[in-house]
Amino acid sequence: MDFLDEPFPDVGTYEDFHTIDWLREKSRDTDRHRKITCKSKESIWEFIKSLLDAWSGWLVMLLIGLLSGTLAGVIDLAVDWMTDLKEGVCLSALWYSHEQCCWTSNETTFADRDKCPQWQKWAELMTGYTEGAGVYLLNYFLYVLWALFFSFLAVSLVRVFAPYACGSGIPEIKTILSGFIIRGYLGKWTLLIKTVTLVLAVSSGLSLGKEGPLVHVACCCGNLFCSLFSKYSKNEGKRREVLSAAAAAGVSVAFGAPIGGVLFSLEEVSYYFPLKTLWRSFFAALVAAFTLRSINPFGNNRLVLFYVEYHTPWYMTTRLGKYPVLEVIVVTGITAVLAFPNPYTRRSTSELISELFNDCGALESSQLCDYINNPNMTRPVDDIPDRPAGPGVYSALWQLTLALVFKIVITIFTFGMKIPSGLFIPSMAVGAIAGRIVGIAVEQMAYHHHDWIIFKNWCRPGADCVTPGLYAMVGAAACLGGVTRMTVSLVVIMFELTGGLEYIVPLMAAAVTSKWVADAFGKEGIYEAHIQLNGYPYLDQDEFTHRTLATDVMRPRRNEPPLAVLTQDSTTVEDVETLIKDTDYNGFPVVVSRESERLIGFVQRRDLILNIKNARQKQDGVVSNSVVYFTEDAPQIPASNPQPLKLRRILNLSPFTVTDHTPMETVVDIFRKLGLRQCLVTRSGRLLGIITKKDVLRHMAHMMNQDPESIMFN
Amino acid sequence: MDFLDEPFPDVGTYEDFHTIDWLREKSRDTDRHRKITCKSKESIWEFIKSLLDAWSGWLVMLLIGLLSGTLAGVIDLAVDWMTDLKEGVCLSALWYSHEQCCWTSNETTFADRDKCPQWQKWAELMTGYTEGAGVYLLNYFLYVLWALFFSFLAVSLVRVFAPYACGSGIPEIKTILSGFIIRGYLGKWTLLIKTVTLVLAVSSGLSLGKEGPLVHVACCCGNLFCSLFSKYSKNEGKRREVLSAAAAAGVSVAFGAPIGGVLFSLEEVSYYFPLKTLWRSFFAALVAAFTLRSINPFGNNRLVLFYVEYHTPWYMTTRLGKYPVLEVIVVTGITAVLAFPNPYTRRSTSELISELFNDCGALESSQLCDYINNPNMTRPVDDIPDRPAGPGVYSALWQLTLALVFKIVITIFTFGMKIPSGLFIPSMAVGAIAGRIVGIAVEQMAYHHHDWIIFKNWCRPGADCVTPGLYAMVGAAACLGGVTRMTVSLVVIMFELTGGLEYIVPLMAAAVTSKWVADAFGKEGIYEAHIQLNGYPYLDQDEFTHRTLATDVMRPRRNEPPLAVLTQDSTTVEDVETLIKDTDYNGFPVVVSRESERLIGFVQRRDLILNIKNARQKQDGVVSNSVVYFTEDAPQIPASNPQPLKLRRILNLSPFTVTDHTPMETVVDIFRKLGLRQCLVTRSGRLLGIITKKDVLRHMAHMMNQDPESIMFN
């Protein structure tokens, strides 16, 4: 594979918004590995270096786990403090959140754990009063003001310093993992700004979550540590193995769900996921979860389990979309103004979900648990029978219905904004609210009509036969499943979140049903939809079932000029330069001669340019008339003639070929499984044309009656 | 794709012990799918048929889940009854197991739940006495006798009716899923005999488990239902998608772990596992788990969770191995004789594991919990501090040590026998015993030396700082992980088994550590080792890192006669027949002419034989001198000449080619990812040679300094 011995540092790298060639990256890595293995026998130092190289994969995983766990912990603490800052301040220590502030106070009982003298609401601090309409309005006003300030700061920072920091990042990471290059998307600057603005955006109270963005943050960490090891920094294929594992670590810290993280990376995000990456992801997710638990941002492992929020990937194009800062301010304003009065939307969404999931034990003081108790009840508290709902439950039902409408509408508008935002928590919240409403309705029906056929066999009077909290949990899983089309990873994340292994069967049933229902509306999940909207060259796993052949897709088409090829021993430097200037192809096939059209290899445009430029500068006698030789030996040439330019070392001697009769489904399969960038088409050994990944994607779009021009990048 | 319009039913099928061509199977399915889609527009009936076809995948999953769940329930019930039959009989109802027998008795208290008058041990029934050395010896003798009878029956049934029913079956299923054909391995006969003999083998008390065999049973169910739908029965590729899902259902019922089953199928068993199969496996596993729970063989969901046993795949070749029946009888005899006196080996292994995992609560009456209580203890029962061990614990330690040695030795010998046998439970038992011993040792150290540095910071006197049960759980996971090299699926199965989500971090750490340690001894898990021992053509996921090229592997080698090829329009029927007689290749490349050697396609040996035979019988004028044409149009021939034979329809016009310079690592990657059977090698459009899957496997064995002849099948 002599074409891999790169003469100049830039040969073999890719340009921005281009697709990598997985087979080539793999070859390069094997080559590197072989060299190290050979060298390791030379000296002890080289042997130690080879050991370090072999373990560097695990080391990178360890570092990713540590850093992303730490960042997640810091983000949790900061969000906690800033969310409370919207309401008031801790006088004993400004950097304490409401809960921490009242922990330090010894005077409080469990019931009054939220009330302590050190914590003062803004209005109280400014006016001295604690009650009254004026105080309420002042608190309301300051709450909205803080929210606007946070969101303004977030959108401005994103706009000025790191435009790539907006959104959840999952569709882009999916595209990057499939082999696309987006420079800077996982850079240090993005990491820094995304971390800071994520805190601001979540604290502002917008209907968005931190889970998707945390996956992006973890991938940025992964990219950062890749740059420390040439094994990963110089090989785009190996780098993507690390990024897959980093995505797993990101979900692991976002939900406190290490197994769910590995499965999410496998099912939803990754493209190539060999078993080796599975083990490494597992390790990274483990370290990250462990680090986060050591930091223990809430002093309460249970709460970490529930501190779940959202991903968002859909960029809706509204008129406001042209003015991103204004858009964020308006949406934040509306969110804050509408959210404050309703208790179910004022609190953080994760607290809401936590309350909706919970069952009404005897200790529960929530409005949702205002049932009319049977005075004769002598049962233990964990076996409360179904009871008629009290007035509190009915008012809670109304508020929940309003909250449901509000959440659905505001989430749709929040998703497209230019700030870090995620989709998980809003979806789960919508599902949980709907589930709880249905659950309470079924419970009351079962109580009042326990002779109906559906309740008859399993719902005797006085029995505890309907658990509204379980309906909320199943609803959350179903809604999230419908949005993302996750199945296995969804169920695992849900039971890692709730600790409820016994509900595995209803959760699985919800996941499968929501997938069926959602698939009936359209096959793609929200991430795929977003990838399509952005025109990324992503080859998804759907089956291609049309009866077209390679010959229908390859270029040149009929009536088009013939394919731009080089010959192995009759092209001059000038010819090559003209070809490069006249076309913008990424590479050129090399044939024996224009008459025989027999293929011998493929050469990259970038490598050609670099080599000719270099030869003209440094190599004596290489002029425009010099003949370019791709053969093994250049013939002896009289000294009067210009010196030949030998370029066999940049020629890929094993280009991928298919025959013109190959069905396109096979071609799509080959592109998908081998991660090709292009493929040459031959018939009986003669070169006929070329198919690039973009051609395949355009053809697929065309076959699905979509606009082929929606595929924008190469 | 005209070569797919099969003129005779047998064209396009594979022979026994051959490898399938995944790309071709996929093409055929797409073709079938297209035809149905076209037809569905013709009439309502066709439309309904196309809907049925689309949903048949989910229907097959439902059927597999139902049948494998039912079979697992029946096996559980039968094993329970027959295991107790070795000790005694229920007088009130002969078909009741010991536990069921005493359930029906109202006289028993919880402590005496195992003692009831209806249940009589054999000696009691025969002699009337319940105690004494003679009674003990008679019970011992009858226990051994029943065990010998069961195992004799099992090995005889396997030997006479279904030799494929022995072992765990997982290595073979892995090989089948990778594309190998073993006819009858998943047949109805195997299903029946394996189910019956599995019950006998487990009941005989041998050190083996039912989990691996249950995977085999579920796959047989999958294969059975495939035959109901031509979509699956006629396409080996689609059939394997169903079998992957069936394997997941098998693990799901074996452990009561549906998610673990899906992951096991993904990580350990399957070869091609697209997302669609993931969803279907998930559904099949769900239905199977649900069915099993509905049957609820133990009347106790908790017990199903623990009723785990073993897989075995290692066929050791002992002298006894030549006499399988004698071997089984001897091993059963030794097992029964040695197991009866030690309480930790007499009971079923799953009960043993369950006891080892459990913590010593206040109610625990086990010998393992014979600690010296502090008389001043006033703590609640779930927070018992570390205590000094009593004499019961010390004698339990000795018995456990003996049981550990016995289990390790007897399991090694049991694995190779010709009866259905699994590996999971013996491995877990060995790990759990070792873990419990270490746990008790650490606990006593911590109690007596709580000032040592390692205990100082977290182990104050009187605190509960060491839980021996957790050590047992981690030990079981580590041992199982070391044997099978599972990671993610292992942890998920462990926590689905134990319901202990909180121990996820130690379990993950154990899985990763045991994988590292085991990998240091050898890269392959027990299933891969078994596949190698049997010489199956399995291309594993290990990376190929040698610097060889396609030209080094292809045949013909130097000094070998040239490649056997057909020409497109100058070979006669007689030439073809001679070629078929003289060679045993599976197919032949077709070239333009022997001079140009330009490749136009590939034709299967089997299809050639069938077509020529058929033409000679039915087609007038086809004689030995007839020219075989693979071109699109045969030229007009004078009536005096023999009629030509047109065979373009059996010609594969898109054979897979690589150049001779292609590195072998790329070739291996292509074979693995695309599931090829063979690949042609060209240079500048000229055909040079051929590489088959067997050539690749031989080359890999050669490069790893193994005997290339160990690859036995094609």
UniProtKB/TrEMBL annotation, chains A, B:
Q: Which domain of life is it from?
A: Eukaryota
Coiled coil spans: none
Q: Which GO terms describe its cellular component?
A: early endosome; endosome membrane; Golgi apparatus; plasma membrane; synaptic vesicle
Q: Which UniProt keywords apply?
A: Antiport, ATP-binding, CBS domain, Chloride, Endosome, Ion transport, Membrane, Nucleotide-binding, Repeat, Transmembrane, Transmembrane helix, Transport
* One Pfam family hit: CBS
Annotated CBS domain residues: 554-618, 651-709
Q: Which CDD domains match?
A: CBS_pair_voltage-gated_CLC_euk_bac, ClC_3_like
Record membrane topology = Multi-pass membrane protein
Give the residue range of the signal peptide.
none
Spell out the subcellular localization from the entry. Answer: Endosome membrane; Membrane
Q: Where are the transmembrane segments?
A: 58-79, 140-165, 214-230, 242-266, 278-299, 320-340, 396-416, 423-442, 470-495
Q: Name one GO molecular function term.
A: antiporter activity
Regarding protein family, the annotation reads: Belongs to the chloride channel (TC 2.A.49) family.
Protein name stated in the entry: Chloride channel protein
Question: To which species is this protein native?
Answer: Cyprinus carpio carpio
Its taxonomic path starts at: Eukaryota, Metazoa, Chordata, Craniata, Vertebrata
